[in-house]
Amino acid sequence: MPEYKAPLRDMRFLIDEVFDFTNSYATIGADDATPDMVNAILEEGAKFCEQVLAPLNRSGDEEGCHYEDTVVTTPKGFKEAFAQYAEGGWMGLASDPAYGGQGLPHSLGLVIGEMVGSANTSFGMYPGLTHGAMAAISAHGSEAQKQTYLTRMTEGRWTGTMCLTEPHCGTDLGIIKTRAVPQADGSYAVSGTKIFISAGEHDLSENIVHLVLAKLPDAPAGTKGISLFIVPKFLPAGDGIGERNGVSCGSIEHKMGIKASATCVMNFDEAKGFLIGEVNKGLNCMFTMMNHARLGTGMQGLCNGEASYQGAVKYANERLQMRSLTGVKAPDKPADPIIVHPDVRRMLLTMKAFNEGNRALAYFTAQLLDQLHSPDESKRQEAEGLLAFLTPICKAFMTETGVEVTNHGMQVFGGHGYIREWGMEQLVRDARIAPIYEGTNGIQALDLLGRKVLGSQGKLMLAFTKQVHRFCEANTGHADFASQIAELARLNKQLGEVTARIGMAAMKNPDEVGAAALDYLMYCGYFILGYLWLRMAMIAREKIEQGASERGFYEAKLATCDFYFKRLLPRTAAHLAAIEAGSESLMKLPAEHFSA
Amino acid sequence: MPEYKAPLRDMRFLIDEVFDFTNSYATIGADDATPDMVNAILEEGAKFCEQVLAPLNRSGDEEGCHYEDTVVTTPKGFKEAFAQYAEGGWMGLASDPAYGGQGLPHSLGLVIGEMVGSANTSFGMYPGLTHGAMAAISAHGSEAQKQTYLTRMTEGRWTGTMCLTEPHCGTDLGIIKTRAVPQADGSYAVSGTKIFISAGEHDLSENIVHLVLAKLPDAPAGTKGISLFIVPKFLPAGDGIGERNGVSCGSIEHKMGIKASATCVMNFDEAKGFLIGEVNKGLNCMFTMMNHARLGTGMQGLCNGEASYQGAVKYANERLQMRSLTGVKAPDKPADPIIVHPDVRRMLLTMKAFNEGNRALAYFTAQLLDQLHSPDESKRQEAEGLLAFLTPICKAFMTETGVEVTNHGMQVFGGHGYIREWGMEQLVRDARIAPIYEGTNGIQALDLLGRKVLGSQGKLMLAFTKQVHRFCEANTGHADFASQIAELARLNKQLGEVTARIGMAAMKNPDEVGAAALDYLMYCGYFILGYLWLRMAMIAREKIEQGASERGFYEAKLATCDFYFKRLLPRTAAHLAAIEAGSESLMKLPAEHFSA
């Protein structure tokens, strides 16, 4: 299996050289997060992920979770690793100090999350879901709820879940059947069945705090009648837990991947629930969790992609097979290492370009998340607008390309890639859930194009394209990057035009939105990565000109940017053609004629 | 799990209406294969695959093969199913009547093979490898070898394997270490270890006939020193088997998919081997098997794609989720079936367009295989040339798109797609081996562009593009398809031009071939499917004009062709850009700088 090494150099390149986190931390009052402290945290996190989590990744996949009579057992070593995670204070790294957290910026939490997910995606699900639940309680819970739940979750003593999906509905939450009946003591009796609940039951924590969507008996139909409840596995008592609540795990799923993550059927049988936020506003509260979770899910594309790349590069340098077409490169060996072959390099560079591009996109987005805490309201609003536009793109583009990357990594290994012990196929399987959950990528695309872009009359897109426009204007005719700047400017203009055309068409026929959505999102993703690759390349060029010592690192950035513009960015043409095709060719075939 | 129904209507459309197999059967003297007989065989094959093989597909995946002390046990039911397969005469359907076969055309065998592989890909590996071994013995074996081995294999009493790969080499067969030492009795003592041997050991047949690549002690280095040997598990004796030979299974692999197919490490310890063909010409003999196997592997992309499509269409018609953006479509239900949503249709139509296009490509190619038996030498030569060009495209394009198709099928199911019991994720895992084995798709691409197209100074490509040219000329300005004809003609011309440019560049730098190869192959695949989709659509249009009763079937062809041209064929633009990018952006990064 590939041995994970946290890509600290690339992380620091983004944190220090591209996005200057130190400076932006200062603007949000996170002065504690000095470069020294950030470095120390990154190194400590890397050590933990490399030495504790990564070694449990293959065994966790082979062993999986086990279910017996409502009890779920995680694979060997997970319990101890989680205890170390909690003791190390990782759960509360970016949480509110008022409830025991360290109050460091969210962007730093995301970087640590990248390491965790790259070392062991399944393990990362347990803190990942907890962080989502903490975000919702933090934003919508009462002070008492925060004191009770947030503090324990911050400690890692209690973990969290999101209970949305039911057997008959995932995307369509308006039709959920779980019911919450008001009780005399102000609590609710929650009854129903939820499925696909990640971390719904396990042996890692003392208590599990379920955030459950349910309907009151008199709730309006559809999404406007959904409320959110805290339903703990054990009711809180004193400093710890008391009575067992009426919620239990009915079974766990057997899945393609992330096998060490328990995916549970959860049965609620008049379980005691506590309303969080307002009645019938549950979906809004849940969106807080979901926005958090969507970026986290996008990260999984990067995480699995990074792990796969590390394995593939190592293998490509070691595996000897055939001679280079331009002449023998390793005369002392029976064949050349396969990294000499152009097609192997095509796969490796595709992986590298997506991974490093996706990392830039994620950190760029995380920096905006930090800015939601800016004292300057205009900064907060700007960040909010950009996040609305970027979040569905992060989720869907990073996971689509994550699946592509892990498949390339496996392909580099040839037949060995298909064999479990090498660990490359696990990364494909683990990565494959990410385009599905937290809203399928098709739903992300509708959110982007329908709700965000067209729903704001283009404003949410313009906020971003204006930034790119200014960047292109400032660099037109750049000595080293003139052609790439011109290409980026062309795509930028094209994006505005095609958005306007879709908007016009959609006024006549709403199916035009659904017909264009996924290709539109992918177009945006390629375009945004182009922008970020150029920003990275320009900095790398400067560093080389300044005589930086790590010349190889910076030259790799330049070469990868060049590769990206020449071989990946042109995919926008195919997506554009699909967008322009409109809805007719999708909608004209009657449903009954899809099968002969 | 998706219930498999053989797509007989679509098969007949190609066999009868598009390619007129009856007429071409007559030209190769296969007059027995009358339309009635062909139909009867297809229906019998469909029944067997639907009722016997398909029900073993999920259980075979869950159970896998088991190994204990050199013995391999296949999953429950496989032994009985294989006995039925053999008794039904399916093994010898297209084999030489001189050795017990039914002598029907290869194209018919391929259609049956499609059903077998769609119903149960793992099961299909056992007859698939046997057919490959039979092809090699048939082409290169002595009369005595044919009498001994072919007859038993035709009966299904004995099965076959291809033993090429060794731990240190797969692609690079020139460096194999397995040795064959001549013995006094004219046989050879074969020693060495072969890995990834599909059907290398199992409990389905009385004997297993290994075709093994090995080197004589005095053989020249590299691929010119490889010979091919028959090494049976049991030495033949009388009408059956005698002494156990010195070959045994050391272990089986734990794989991502095709788990019911035994992938074996085979140890040869002075095993008695019999030379097949000439000394040091083993690779040529193996190519006979490999060409056969490459089309068969390409078919696996279609097989898994078809099974996935059937599951996805059914689910999309049944699963209720959200309302259509253009208004409620199923007012009596809590939500509309998801097939109303444009993005779901995008996935389904992508699947349909690739599957039916790939089926057309496979049957088109199979018809050429039949023509290798034409009494007319010019016909044989023409077929050989086209096959040389098409075979690597079938293998790589059909498997790349097969992986895409199965992933769409899984995505249509949302979260349920990731759960094993639904069977959709198995199809992704089973399909994923096909781009790897029988020569990775990267190797197929090099074979196509380097060996075939440039190696023939473009002649092997021209034979095909001339056919398309004539088709476009004959249909320029067609009342219904003028724009598609024009687009096809443009791509045809572009293919010639870009090939010439690569050829020029490759004279200066051989890496230009490897840099362009995979995108070149994919470009060719999209282009060829465009040609075949147009041929299908034009026939469908005629049938509608003639008032054919199955109007829905033909209209689906028109709609899918339209979809293909509007939304999939434009991907050629991205591949063209990647080809035109040349090798520089791939080769300039030093190997040591791929990692930071």
From TrEMBL, chains A, B:
Keyword tags: FAD, Flavoprotein, Membrane, Oxidoreductase, Transmembrane, Transmembrane helix
Acyl-CoA oxidase/dehydrogenase middle domain sequence ranges: 162-270
The Acyl-CoA dehydrogenase/oxidase N-terminal domain, residue ranges: 40-156
Enzyme Commission code: 1.3.99.41
GO terms of molecular function: flavin adenine dinucleotide binding; oxidoreductase activity, acting on the CH-CH group of donors
Its biological purpose: Involved in the assimilation of dimethylsulphoniopropionate (DMSP), an important compound in the fixation of carbon in marine phytoplankton, by mediating the conversion of 3-(methylthio)propanoyl-CoA (MMPA-CoA) to 3-(methylthio)acryloyl-CoA (MTA-CoA).
UniProt protein name: 3-methylmercaptopropionyl-CoA dehydrogenase
Organism, as annotated: Stutzerimonas marianensis
